[in-house]
Amino acid sequence: MEDDANRFETLLERAIDYSKTSIKLAKLQAVKEITDVVSTWIPHTIVLVLVSTCILFISLGLALLIGEALENIYYGFFIVSGFYGIIALALHFVFHKGLKKYFLQCLVKNLFN
Questions:
Q1: What is the 3-state secondary structure (H, E, C) of the chain?
Q2: Is residue 59 packed enough to be buried (19+ CB in 10 Å), middle (13-18) or exposed (0-12)?
Q3: What does the pLDDT profile of the chain (113 residues) look like in tens digits?
Q4: What's the CA gap between 63 and 69, in Å, rounded?
Q5: How far apart are CA 63 and CA 43, in angstroms?
Q6: Letter string b/e over residues 8-28, b meaning 16 or more CB atoms within 10 A of that residue's CB
Q7: Phi, then psi, of 47 in degrees rounded to 5
Q8: Cβ neighbours for 79, distance < 8 A, ≥ 6 positions apart
Q9: Nearby residues of 40 by Cβ (< 8 Å), 6 or more positions away
Q10: pTM over 0.90
Q11: Cα(5)–Cα(101) distance, integer angstroms
Q12: Helices 73-94 and 2-69: crossing angle, nearest 10°?
């Protein structure tokens, strides 16, 4: 009888050790997945910020150039902002579903690869 109790205690200790190890493994896998996603998106974010800054300064220069040509600086800014407004509306109405699907696929790909 005492031998059965000893076996049960050993089995219980092993089960507890196994569950602790499984929890640690799950935590490590979650950390790995999070770091993979973050390390993938950080370079993309940096490039996006740099490209956005470049586009901003090009737009400012173009607005000033158009404004000087039309002899009123405001007109240049209105024309450039109208151009971006038209692009934004086109993206929203024409490409919204496609862009949403693309970014969702990229996110799922990064999470599960």
A1: CHHHHHHHHHHHHHHHHHHHHHHHHHHHHHHHHHHHHHHHHHHHHHHHHHHHHHHHHHHHHHHHHHHHHCCCHHHHHHHHHHHHHHHHHHHHHHCHHHHHHHHHHHHHHHHHC
A2: middle
A3: 567 678 878 888 888 989 999 999 999 998 888 888 788 888 889 999 999 999 999 999 999 999 999 999 999 999 999 999 999 998 888 887 887 888 888 777 777 76
A4: 10
A5: 30
A6: eeeeeeeeeeeeeeeeeeeee
A7: -65, -40
A8: 63, 66
A9: 110
A10: no
A11: 58
A12: 140
Q: What are the phi and psi torsion angles at 71 (to 5°)?
A: 65, 25
